[in-house]
Structure formats: structure tokens, C-alpha cells
Design goal:
Helices cover about 45% and strands about 15% of the residues. It contains eleven helices and nine strands. Strands 5-4-3-2-1-9-8-7-6 form a nine-stranded parallel sheet. β7, α9 and β8 form a beta-alpha-beta unit. The chain starts with a helix and ends with a helix.
Amino acid sequence: MANRIEERLQQVKERGDKAFITYMTAGLPDMQGCADLVKALDEAQIDVVELGIPFSDPVADGPVIQAASYKSIRQGTNLRKVFDMVADIRADGCQVPLVFMMYFNTITYYGVEAFVDRCVEVGVDGLIIPDLPYEEQKQLQDVLDRKADAPILIQLVTPVSGERIPMLLEKARGFVYCVSSMGVTGQAADFHRNVLDYLEQVKSVSKIPVMMGFGIRTAKDVLPMKHTIDGCIVGSHFINLMEENGYSTDAAKEYVRTFKAEMNA
């Protein structure tokens, strides 16, 4: 079976549109509410959903996602429960592309082989692991390569990746996650001062869609980069929006539809 992420992004490209991805912390407001939210995002035609697996030391994340992660852990969320939730979502017929954003300790603790097997079983399409440098990905990548329908490992690049970008993207699949600013998630749209040059550099060597993330709130934030990127990712702002609206599925759908309409106007 072709990977859902790659299929969806190809469809978006063929329409001449930009893709939209939202990040949400798994287990919030609770496991059932989280499942309902994923299905609502799918109904609103989100292109990919990033599910953040709560972790005690999320080094790439700012205060909003850290607080959400802590809250979810306090409620008892763990990787096993998230896998079960994804299995239920798939059983209900929801085929939205799903990416786990997580830290490598969690995979190591679960067991790399067992982790990949369970991803295949329940239908996880991609992995973003911000604390796993390219040079240390071989152990996981070897297991992913051996398994049919295994999730794809999404590569992250930053404004200081520079000469490493061609190496990072040589065998990359799905999309490339372009970190738009230095530091952690959730900062204001205070992008790196040379962000356009950097995005153009990535675009010039990337054979896959270029997605921009970190600090984005509205479609207006990415309009200056619209002709360079293939889409964008919103995380902290979406979590704040959900907190403010009691994790309302209607609020989630309205946000996604509005953002997509404005970005693709």
C-alpha cells in the first residue's frame, strides 16, 4: 500500500494547492476527545495530522506544547494507549495521514522492532523524531526498511543546516520539515531573518514537498513564503485554540477550513 502522506501530498500538488498540517498532543482533552478531534480534522480536510506523543523532556518544544505534554502525562497517556486510539480511529474508517512526533527514548523503551511492528498494525504513516540526528538514524531506518507499510521517517532541517541539506534530503520521503526559526516551537511568527533564502535553498535540492513549521498562527504568516513552500504546519497556536475552546471539534474544523481557504486563495 502506498504511503498515505505521499498520496495526499501528491493530490494537493495536482490541485495546485498548498498542504496544511496541524499538530496536537495525543491524549487531550482525553483519549476519546483526542480521537474525536482527529476525525473532525479529517472531516475539515486537513492534509496530515501530527500527533505529539507526550514526553517528560520535550527538548524541541516550547512552553505551550510542554504544558500540554505534562497535562496529558498526568492524565495517564502513554504510547500503548495512543496506539490503541489510532487503531480505533482506523477501525472507524478514518484514513487521514497520521504522523507521530516523538522523542527517541520513548521508542527505545518500547523496543524499536516492537514499535515499528505496532505502527504497521495500527496505521501510523510517519515519524518525526527531533532528538534523533541524521547520523544516528540507521538503527531505526534499518527496521523501517525491512517492514512493508512501515511509517516513513520525516527529516527536519533548520536555518543552520546549510551544507548538510543535500545529505539530509538525499533519501528523504514524505515531506521535509523546515524549522522556520531558531529555538523551540510556539514562538511568535518571528522567523529567521534569512528565512526566504533558506527555504529557497531547501526547495532547490528537495525532491519532496517542503513544509514550513514553528511559530505559524494564521495563513497571513506564510504568505511571503507561499510561492516557495508546499505547505505549512501549525502546532502551539492550534493547541492554544483548542484549550480556549474546550477542545471543540467545531472550532477545530472552522480553523482548518479558514486557514486552508486563505492559504489557497
